[in-house]
């Protein structure tokens, strides 16, 4: 390798290394912060302290950690499954069974992505009230199930679904729903994995809508619990950091176990 | 008919999508009073105490207190009121006094009047006035935000001043002491957040005025109190005696960590200050500094809130009875919450209790509660109107500019222009 | 050629049953609220005491300095942040696409990691890191990059810088994944051929990579545009102060249109009509920009 190429190479590593470091730094900060007291954290102490057990104990005392964690998990998992089911079926339907009427509806669906959520909250809230769903987890999930973005994503991915597979299945006498369930879904596993990662993260991290629609302590999600800890009159940053980690672990976990399929699935969606 | 439809639709939705069994909607138990409020160490803890006292005599009632941050309570209340969904609302809600008229006037009929039940003559009049609409009184007056100047004796003494020097201050003198403190100790005098209009409100009310006149019309231009408040803040910024703070939490951290020598705010901060046990004996309390405006006094108010019962509540009578029994009649309750939480109530009779007469070791044996009760009686009454948040925001936009050379007159002009569009 | 009637019916039955559930949910939970808000945008009043206002709300937009400030901020974030983030994401993706690069899997994972963090968590972390005496200023001082701590949250300029930094941190890796996925679809032999022909690397980037990635670039540009124009969570939580005035950053320096809508709905005297009008400004902006972006992408096709 020539010296100038070597220098370029070193530059590339330095740049990527620095960017990767900046990307993970807040994670490190969170982990170091868990072991420190508030007073040290606000003064920027970046060495491990000895307050971890105290912070952890306080977190589990102040927030009903197992309950809020369970609530979040329930909402995120059921919400993700429902979203993937409804939106992938629709994305498939829009792509395979084209008609002018459905294309127009698809256009409207894409337009809904542009509407800021803040303005939909009041009417959505009224609807949930009429359905008797205020303060239920189902009310948190329902508005996200038919997501314009996920429908779009699956329609794009379906374009890469080989039509020979479908034709062969039709010749074999499979019904359309069977083709979808037995041929499409297994073939598109990595597309589902990628969508799962993104939808799960969105559902797990959702804040504004659960805040409005959930009313009692026993329904709260972990993000709501952390936000009330962080906005206490005198917040304990050490405790908040413990909560932050607990709230981040599931999304990290989902990402790591699905990482390979995730990148694979992205491939399909951007063709 | 309607409810049958609702049940049908609900079960259809549940069965179709997820299986209804997983999501049994929580049915309200008979006689559960739900309360929304913020701050676990203050309002929540105090309401728990009140609930414990009440349920002792009424074992069939349970109190469920739901704790959100203050903006979250306001947001949820507004969503619930706007949607007209009764199940979406609690039975009792805590509302900050500045916002009371906004809710009473824009959601008429949503709150239960208490004037038939509660004897309001025992409360500080300014609290009763702000919850009165068309002759009916709607709330249960709770804590007062009577203000004081909390300061670190050790820093002030290091700068060559004594506790006596801190009495009867003007803001100019306050700034002068601030400069001396910095020169001698390296500490700043104040934590100060330029996005917070709190100090503006304290100074303005100490001079007996507000953003609005008695009729609720805008009073920005020609408001001597507002002008004085901005003047003081321009001087504070130009003298550089403050440590910039961002948001409430950061602002609190400035004085709890010993970074600054003083804090001018409502009495409810006492608990937070006392939570720093290692600083015991180092703090003192004085009346707030005054401005040179006719009628200005060394007493003011910041924040403070009151309890309201929702008209849609199905346990309305119990909720009203709870508030009336404890907050309007139980003098001993006020002693407990003062001792445990540093809460100064607005029931005047409570001030004669023993707790108000106890010297406080944390403040070097000063009888601080007596001082606060005295200042409570001196707070000028003003009309908080219905647009305080809007004008606050307009003021907060100008505050950082004052430190960068903008004149007070220009700031007032800009505030007036922004406020005019916002208050419609 | 029109399909036979029987086939057409078969198509329609299946088509509608596949898209039916999603369309029903969209009708209920999107279309109805959208129509409601459209109707509201012609109403004026406090809380639920409303009256018809015609174009009153639109006239109010033209006189409202807060709206104009929010619009300016939103456009500023869009114009500055989206290009920085996408350029960075594309650049990193191209570097990571090099099969000879060591640790590329690790680097890719690390750079993607920020977007698994929840908004509430990352706002708390950024808030605590960018405090005046916090770790970021300590580091900058120690490295002698600055001589005075930077007032991240109390100076309007720095508050905007902080917000842009935060969003870029959170979303660069996310966009990078899209580019990386698309790059892996590109036939590497085209690169090899042009490299042998002596085409310099920057030219390869602009003449080969960018054109081939155009669909993805368009996709990420449109989604980032939507995201930035609807920017709410970060503006409200990181720099925005939780004080009573509730300004977004010093002097409302990070007040975005979405935060203003939120204020009009929940913080201020509730004014649902005006809030709805402001949100349609966002819709119009997004639609315009998306149109322009599609148009630009199409032009270069020829």
Automatic annotation (TrEMBL), chain A:
One of its GO terms (biological process) is transmembrane transport. It comes from the Bacteria. Residues 69-258 form the ABC transmembrane type-1 domain. Belongs to the binding-protein-dependent transport system permease family. Its main location: membrane. The keyword Plastid does not apply. The lineage of its organism: Bacteria, Pseudomonadati, Pseudomonadota, Alphaproteobacteria, Hyphomicrobiales. This is Lactose/L-arabinose transport system permease protein. Keywords: Cell membrane, Membrane, Transmembrane, Transmembrane helix, Transport. The keyword Nucleotide-binding does not apply. It is a multi-pass membrane protein. CDD domains: TM_PBP2 (cd06261). The chain crosses the membrane at residues 12-32, 75-94, 106-128, 134-154, 179-204, 237-258. It is found in: Cell membrane. GO terms for cellular component: plasma membrane.
TrEMBL record, chain B:
One of its GO terms (cellular component) is periplasmic space. It comes from the Bacteria. Keywords: Periplasm, Signal. Coiled coil: none annotated. The keyword Signal applies. Its main location: periplasm. It is found in: Periplasm. Residues 1-30 form the signal peptide. PANTHER family: ARABINOSE-BINDING PROTEIN-RELATED (PTHR43649), SUGAR BINDING SECRETED PROTEIN (PTHR43649:SF32). Belongs to the bacterial solute-binding protein 1 family. This is Lactose/L-arabinose transport system substrate-binding protein. It comes from Prosthecomicrobium pneumaticum.
TrEMBL record, chain C:
It is a multi-pass membrane protein. GO terms for biological process: transmembrane transport. It is found in: Cell membrane. The keyword Zinc does not apply. Keywords: Cell membrane, Membrane, Transmembrane, Transmembrane helix, Transport. SUPFAM superfamilies: MetI-like. The keyword DNA-binding does not apply. PANTHER family: ABC TRANSPORTER PERMEASE PROTEIN, INNER MEMBRANE ABC TRANSPORTER PERMEASE PROTEIN YCJO. It comes from the Bacteria. Belongs to the binding-protein-dependent transport system permease family. This is Lactose/L-arabinose transport system permease protein. Residues 71-293 form the ABC transmembrane type-1 domain. Signal peptide: none annotated. InterPro entries: ABC_transporter_permease, MetI-like, MetI-like_sf. GO terms for cellular component: plasma membrane. The chain crosses the membrane at residues 21-42, 75-96, 105-125, 157-181, 212-232, 272-296.
């Amino acid at each position: 390798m020539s010296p100038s190429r070597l220098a370029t190479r070193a530059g590339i590593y330095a740049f990527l290394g620095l960017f990767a470091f900046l990307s993970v730094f807040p994670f490190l900060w969170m982990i170091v912060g868990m072991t420190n007291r508030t007073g040290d954290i606000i003064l920027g102490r970046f060495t491990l302290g000895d307050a971890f057990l105290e912070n952890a104990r306080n977190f589990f005392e102040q927030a009903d950690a197992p309950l809020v964690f369970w609530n979040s998990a329930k909402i995120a998992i059921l919400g993700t499954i429902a979203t993937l089911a409804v939106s992938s079926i629709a994305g498939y339907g829009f792509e395979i069974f084209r008609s002018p009427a459905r294309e127009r509806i698809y256009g409207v669906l894409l337009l809904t992505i542009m509407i800021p959520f803040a303005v939909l909250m009041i009417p959505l809230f009224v609807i949930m009230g009429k359905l008797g769903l205020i303060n239920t987890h189902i009310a948190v999930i329902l508005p996200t199930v038919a997501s314009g973005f996920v429908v779009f994503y699956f329609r794009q991915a379906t374009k890469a679904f080989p039509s020979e597979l479908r034709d062969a299945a039709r010749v074999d006498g499979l019904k359309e729903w069977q083709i979808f369930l037995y041929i499409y879904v297994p073939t598109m596993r990595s597309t589902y994995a990628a969508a799962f990662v993104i939808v799960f993260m969105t559902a797990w991290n959702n804040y504004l809508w659960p805040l409005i629609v959930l009313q009692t302590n026993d329904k709260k999600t972990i993000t709501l619990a952390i936000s009330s800890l962080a906005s206490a009159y005198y917040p304990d940053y050490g405790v908040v950091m413990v909560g932050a980690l607990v709230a981040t672990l599931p999304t990290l976990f989902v990402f790591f176990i699905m990482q390979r399929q995730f990148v694979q699935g992205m491939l399909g969606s951007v063709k | 008919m309607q409810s049958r439809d609702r049940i049908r639709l609900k079960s259809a939705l549940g069965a179709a999508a997820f299986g209804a069994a997983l999501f049994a909607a929580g049915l309200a138990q008979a006689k559960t009073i739900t309360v929304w409020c913020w701050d676990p160490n203050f309002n929540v803890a105090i309401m728990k105490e009140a609930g414990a006292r009440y349920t002792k005599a009424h074992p069939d009632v349970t109190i469920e207190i739901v704790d959100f941050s203050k903006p979250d309570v306001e947001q949820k209340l507004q969503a619930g009121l706007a949607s007209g969904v009764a199940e979406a609302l609690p039975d009792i809600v805590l509302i900050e006094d500045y916002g009371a008229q906004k809710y009473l006037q824009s959601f008429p009929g949503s709150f239960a009047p208490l004037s038939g039940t509660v004897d309001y003559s025992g409360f500080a009049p300014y609290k009763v006035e702000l919850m009165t609409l068309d002759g009916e009184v709607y709330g249960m007056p709770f804590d007062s935000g009577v203000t004081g100047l909390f300061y670190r004796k050790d820093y002030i003494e290091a700068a060559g001043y004594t506790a006596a020097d801190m009495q009867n201050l003007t803001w100019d003198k306050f700034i002068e002491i601030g400069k001396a403190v910095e020169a001698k100790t390296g500490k700043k005098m104040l934590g100060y957040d330029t996005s917070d209009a709190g100090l503006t409100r304290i100074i303005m009310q100490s001079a007996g005025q507000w953003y609005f006149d008695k009729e609720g019309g805008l009073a920005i231009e020609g408001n001597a109190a507002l002008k004085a408040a901005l003047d003081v803040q321009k001087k504070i910024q130009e003298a550089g005696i403050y440590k910039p703070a961002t948001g409430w939490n950061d602002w609190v951290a400035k004085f709890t960590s010993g970074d600054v020598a003083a804090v001018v705010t409502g009495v409810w901060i006492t608990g937070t200050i006392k939570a720093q046990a290692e600083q015991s004996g180092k703090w003192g309390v004085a009346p707030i500094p005054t401005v040179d405006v006719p009628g200005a006094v060394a007493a003011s108010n910041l924040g403070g809130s009151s309890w309201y019962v929702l008209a849609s509540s199905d346990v309305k009578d119990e909720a009203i009875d709870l508030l009336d029994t404890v907050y309007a009649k139980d003098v001993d309750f006020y002693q407990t919450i003062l001792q445990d939480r540093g809460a100064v109530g607005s029931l005047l009779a409570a001030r004669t209790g023993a707790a108000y007469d106890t010297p406080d070791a944390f403040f070097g044996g000063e009888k601080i509660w007596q001082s606060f009760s005295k200042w409570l009686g001196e707070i000028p009454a003003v009309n908080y109107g219905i647009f305080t948040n809007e004008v606050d925001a307009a003021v907060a936009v100008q505050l950082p500019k004052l430190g960068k050379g903008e004149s007070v007159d220009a700031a007032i002009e800009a505030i007036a222009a922004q406020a005019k569009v916002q208050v419609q | 050629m029109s399909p036979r009637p029987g086939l057409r019916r078969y198509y329609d039955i299946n088509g509608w049953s596949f898209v039916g559930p999603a369309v029903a949910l969209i009708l209920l939970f999107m279309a109805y609220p959208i129509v409601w808000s459209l109707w509201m945008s012609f109403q004026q009043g406090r809380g639920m005491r409303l009256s018809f206002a015609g174009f009153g709300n639109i006239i109010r937009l033209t006189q409202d300095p807060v709206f104009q400030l929010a619009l300016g901020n939103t456009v500023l974030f869009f114009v500055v942040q989206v290009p920085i983030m996408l350029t960075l994401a594309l650049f990193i993706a191209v570097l990571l696409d090099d099969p000879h690069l060591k640790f590329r899997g690790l680097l890719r994972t690390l750079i993607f990691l920020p977007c698994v963090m929840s908004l509430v968590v990352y706002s708390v972390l950024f808030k605590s890191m960018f405090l005046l005496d916090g770790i970021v200023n300590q580091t900058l001082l120690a490295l002698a990059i600055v001589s005075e701590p930077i007032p991240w949250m109390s100076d309007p300029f720095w508050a905007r810088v902080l917000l842009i930094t935060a969003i870029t941190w959170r979303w660069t890796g996310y966009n990078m994944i899209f580019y990386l996925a698309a790059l892996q679809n590109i036939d590497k032999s085209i690169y090899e051929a042009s490299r042998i022909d002596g085409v310099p690397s920057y030219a390869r980037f602009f003449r080969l990579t960018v054109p081939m990635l155009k669909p993805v670039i368009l996709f990420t540009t449109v989604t980032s545009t939507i995201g930035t124009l609807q920017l709410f969570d970060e503006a409200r939580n990181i720099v925005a102060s939780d004080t009573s005035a509730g300004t977004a950053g010093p002097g409302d320096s990070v007040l975005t249109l979405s935060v203003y809508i939120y204020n009009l709905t929940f913080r201020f005297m509730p004014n649902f009509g005006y809030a709805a009008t402001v949100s349609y400004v966002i819709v119009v902006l997004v639609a315009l920009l998306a149109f322009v972006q599609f148009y630009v992408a199409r032009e270069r096709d020829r």
